[in-house]
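Human: I'm a chemist; would you kindly supply sequence and structure tokens for a protein?

Assistant:
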Amino acid sequence: MEMLEQPDAVARSLGYGGRLGGVDNIVKLGGLDRKRDELINIDNLLIAACGTSHLAGKYGEHLMKQLG
């Protein structure tokens, strides 16, 4: 069932201020840019998940380590 919900989930994510593409060809989710000063000071982040979300969290961990 989770797989069938993906198109709606993506549409909802992009509908809340998210942008895809642009000049830099990046994905930018809405709302986070307003909290940039707070987010930039985070030293540790705990990602807790199960199943598919766990795999997405592991991939996010990999990306965050690459980006510093």
Q: What stands out?
A: The radius of gyration is 14 Å. The beta strands are 19-21, 26-28. The CA atoms of residues 19 and 28 lie 5 Å apart.
